Amino acid sequence: MTEVLVGGLSARALADAATAAGYAPLAADLFCDLDLQERCAATRRLGGSLDAGIDPDAPSALERLARGRAPIGFAYASGFEDRPQLLEAVAELWPILGNSASTIRRVKDPLRLAELCRSLAIPHPEIRFDRPGGDGWLAKRAGGSGGSHVGRAGEATYWQEQVPGEPVSALVLANGGAARVLGLSAQWPDPCPGAPFRYGGAVRPAPLDAGTAGSLSRAAERIAQASGLVGLNSVDFLVAADAYWLIEVNPRPGATLDLFRDRDGRLFAEHVAACRGAPLPHDEFRLAPASAAAILYADAPIAVMPAIAWPEWTADRTPPGVAIAQDAPVCTVVAEAETGAAARALLAGRTAALRGLIGGAQCRSA
Question: Which of 257, 269, 304, 349 is 20 to 30 A off residue 285, Cα-Cα?
């Protein structure tokens, strides 16, 4: 079986996609959750944290993980956008199955992205590098990913005009020239102190009319083509009743990858092929009618994670014995249904049941 390195802040979704495509993933991330360990040929924990990011020794950790093996390359999830120098170090060891460090620098530069959107006539909020007076602006970190960095002023901060609308993300497959949107998902935040825009979950398909969906898809494909993106990427929008704005480009598989699990396990194989410049597929991926996923965060500190019988509709399962800080992730909950509304309702019920299961196990182990 062909081995492939995967890594990032959380590598489980990417590892699952690789496994479904017939690869044997060697995975490294911050958590080494139970299901990552169970499904991968080998795993290794990276140093760092969600707040501080991946430690600089990540390339060395990947080298130790792959020692004695021959992976075809390295596919990455979130965690490298704000430190592309790590990706450059990895590229000296294996082919990168994704966008290069230079591409990351280009698309994550807020000024260059704003200028590109302007040249393509794609709506994009105004940005500033000096602190603006008054309300209506959001502090963001250049190279940041997810919603946790939004609203936090600090190093590499810029300000983006706050515009109305609901978050929608496009999953885009590109080969450096052509680009194709595979689907649109609607996202929602799960705020906590200090992170009012923290990522909560998403549902596919996004509840949009055909005209709006078409406009977003065309904008995402044009920005991917103009940026020379390869493989799977996500393009984030805010969508209001009669307008939309392109907010971010994430030059790697996004947080919504679980929503695009295809019945044939093609997704990761198409990612690899597109990174190598192969023509994009024209046929449709066989997906569930609707999917939803959400992160379950700890409402209070968990001193010792209990051993529980994890339901099959969970992922990113925290190993027993691990301490979990308040507001840290415990696991991911997933649901499939015939409609987006039904998937979200099923997701809510499962999340509530899981909170009870974990709470009950804590009480029994106390």
Answer: 349
pLDDT digits (tens, 9 = 90+) for 53-62: 999 999 999 9
pLDDT at 221 over 70: yes
Q: What is the pLDDT of residue 136?
A: 85
pTM score of the predicted model: 0.94
pLDDT on residue 151: 59
- The Cα–Cα gap between 208 and 186 comes to 9
Tokens 């968990």 identify what position? 302
Cα→Cα distances 186→82, 141, 171, 217, 289, Å: 25, 23, 11, 13, 15
Name the pairing type of β-strands 3-7 and 24-29: parallel
* d(C-alpha 152, C-alpha 157), whole Å: 8
Cα→Cα distances 119→215, 229, 296, 306, Å: 17, 17, 40, 54
Q: How many CA atoms lie within 13 A of 140 on its CB side?
A: 25
| Degrees, nearest 5: CA angle 318-322-325 | 90
- Residue type at 92? E
Determine the pLDDT at residue 74: 98
Taking a C-beta distance cutoff of 8 angstroms, is the pair 339, 53 a contact?
A: no
Cα–Cα dist 337/289, whole Å: 7
Is-contact 182 260, C-beta < 8 A? Answer: yes
Please enumerate in sequence order all residues whose Cβ is within 8 A of that of 85, keeping only pairs 6 or more positions apart, or say none. 101
Measured in whole angstroms, the distance separating CA 299 from the mean position of its chain's CA atoms is: 22
Alpha helices in 210-339 (DSSP H): 210-227, 267-275
What per-residue string of b and e applies to 116-131 under the rule 16 or more CB within 10 Å gives b? bbeeeebbbbebeeee
Helices (H), the chain: 12-20, 34-39, 58-65, 84-91, 101-107, 110-119, 210-227, 267-275, 340-365
